[in-house]
Amino acid sequence: MESVFHLSELGTSVKKEMLAGLTTFISMSYILFVNPDILGDAGMDKGAVFTATAISAIIGCLLMAFLANYPIAIAPGLGDNAFFTYSVVIAMGVPWQTALAGVVVASILFFIITFMKIREIVIDAIPHDLKLAMSAGIGIFIAFVGLQGGGLIVKEESTLVTIGSFTNGEVWLTIFGFLVIIILIARKVSGAIFIGMVATAILGLVTHLIPLPNHIVSSIPSLKPTIGVGLMNIPNINTFQLWSVVLLFLFVAFFNTAGTLIGLAEQAGFMKNNKMPRIGRALGADSGSLLAGSLLGTTPTAAYVESSAGIALGGRSGLTALVVAVLFFLSMFFSPLLTVITTNVTAPVLIVVGILMAQPLKGINWHKFEIAVPAFLIVVGMPLTYNISYGIAFGFLTYPILMIAAGKWRKVHPVLYVLFFVFLLLLYILNTLN
């Protein structure tokens, strides 16, 4: 253990790492049920997605443990699966098989640019304020999806959206779950999200809003409905629209993990001179799990902000991530619970995760107008256009313009000027697709 994870050097112990790994797993285990629920909306087999979610998380955590030696867990990201289902499959009308092929191609390109360290260069060039805005914007987008899924917000012709009906029992189930989770978090209870999901599911079963499962433990669901589907459908990516989808997946995956990795490294005290040691290895673990997940049949993986729960308990090495990987393996035998974890059980999770992801808003320099405008456009652009890429594009297009107007053009990294034209192209592509 010592020779692999350098526990003494990092000021930790096996006991601390085990407890940190358990805490991190409990805090993020909701993804096992939320990911199949969201990708199920795209028409994918929930059982297969459940298995693909667990295996891709295992691969990501093992890579993070042994390659980068960080206490950071990896699993399919909420922002990425929401983008896949609601922006690409539903909004653009792309079949999930073809969209998954887009994820595979984007994953291969993603792996290449990570290996060439292009990703590190771009991440270092992005202003800290815009990184914070991107993280917060994705959080608010996820919360909006949860509010819709739980029936708290519904479609209304004259005002676009309005409040849902409180005569609906399922809406109250969502409210109950939300209250349980936020109360437990306020009480600083570890695994609050997981406990809240269990409590909501039990209430749903008692009130017959959720049907009883036939059993709890079973064999691992087959990957057959999803494994290799993306790879086999790569030939179907033969139009400008579909190659544009590949670009979008690459783009979203490119930026999604950066803010989380930096934030967790700051929390753990790893940052040195505003740089994260071994960031290349951490990004390599991320890209490796992303490629594996796309081949198995799930959306891009990402570093999990819930890793902060384990770090807060003293997790400092890859042993924490190794423990998380082991627990994900054991969880694969509980797939029958998928029938119990309905949209109204997962909706409170999305809302709460959105709240947690919005916390970086406090770090943005709102008093500087040339910063406030692009940050604001990123944050509100994602939920109001129902598209993560639109929000990011709005911010990256206005940032260099306002910095030039403020006479601060020399402070803009040259990479940002290149990205300005990339986003112009991206905006054109998105407009063409719609």
Automatic annotation (TrEMBL):
Could you list the residue ranges forming a coiled coil in this record? none
Location in the cell reads: Cell membrane
Where would you say this protein principally sits, based on its record? Answer: membrane
Q: Does the keyword Glycosyltransferase apply?
A: no
Entries under Pfam families matching the protein: Xan_ur_permease (PF00860)
Instruction: Give me the segments passing through the membrane.
Output: 18-35, 47-68, 88-112, 132-154, 160-185, 192-210, 240-262, 311-330, 337-359, 371-402, 414-433
User: Record's InterPro entries?
Assistant: Azg-like, Azg-like_bact_archaea, NCS2
Instruction: Give the record's family classification.
Output: Belongs to the nucleobase:cation symporter-2 (NCS2) (TC 2.A.40) family. Azg-like subfamily.
What is the protein name for this chain? NCS2 family permease
Q: Which organism does this record belong to?
A: Heyndrickxia vini
